[in-house]
Request: fold
Amino acid sequence: MNIGHASRASGVSAKMIRYYEQVGLIRPAERSEANNYRSFDERNVNELRFIRRARSLGFSVDEITNLLSLWRDRARPSRDVKAIADQHVAELEGRIAEMQAMADTLRHLSGCCAGDDRPDCPILADLASGDPPAGRGRRAAARPFGG
Amino acid sequence: MNIGHASRASGVSAKMIRYYEQVGLIRPAERSEANNYRSFDERNVNELRFIRRARSLGFSVDEITNLLSLWRDRARPSRDVKAIADQHVAELEGRIAEMQAMADTLRHLSGCCAGDDRPDCPILADLASGDPPAGRGRRAAARPFGG
DNA sequence: GACGCGCCTTTCCATCGTGGGAAGGTCAAG
DNA sequence: CTTGACCTTCCCACGATGGAAAGGCGCGTC
Reply:
């Protein structure tokens, strides 16, 4: 199975398959001797699907590395898997809370804004006040999404 | 006022001040002729505070470019400001919903996981099923946070 | 006058996962 | 033999931020 076929079978783009190999998330694929083309089997495709599902739940490549090795280890304690999942949930909740705080603040400001031809605008007034986010009981931290 | 002073006065790192100048978010600062040091005044510091506050509400540099020009335009219609804010709120809500869906799914799976020495684990079982996220009524898209 | 410290300057690199594109090899069908 | 579909590697870009290197300038101190 060539990379394009594996890509269609797994839903992971060929680009990403090569990337996952490069960063060590998956073992380097076998290569056809004539071609130097990568070749994949059903097991590889299952791994790719696992990765895709984990990515869709927001796990980072590092976390997936750990999840994959637990998956392969038939003697794993489910405790370890649960720990990774719970930690990820906590991260998600943290980011959600930050973004929720931003959205709440902005909804409030927008609700106070006439939104017509006139220039007066509580949104700009708030930004211009330049207060640090913690200053008025708002708790949104500076960097809510990954950067 | 040198960049370090402006940084402390505004809460924006010197690094970021140079970056904002580079990408055109702020006008290039005046330069001392001897030094070639940037020099800032209170107005610049106010702009930097505006930017910091906007960043803390999750606005992108592009959005802040627009907000700044509206801020400077005393004849702006508040409608335009509100539109930017509302659109940003919608983006935030979208991302929040995606992450909420991930967290919900993971909380459910984790709740079903014994989390002990035994290897059986519904979390891994779910990942191994490799279903596309839309397949079982879950709606989490693939890329919830900025990348 | 020499030295060190602190500040400034620019430039390059890394993050994280993903897509885009170039330049070139391989293969099967027409 | 050509065309087109596939594969390969390598480089670049994103966004906002921090880090580090290498060097210039100014002030205070010996």
Notes: Residues 78-136 of chain A form one domain. Residues 13, 15-16, 19, 23, 34-37, 55, 60-61, 146-147 of chain A lie near DNA strand C (CB under 10 Å from a C1').
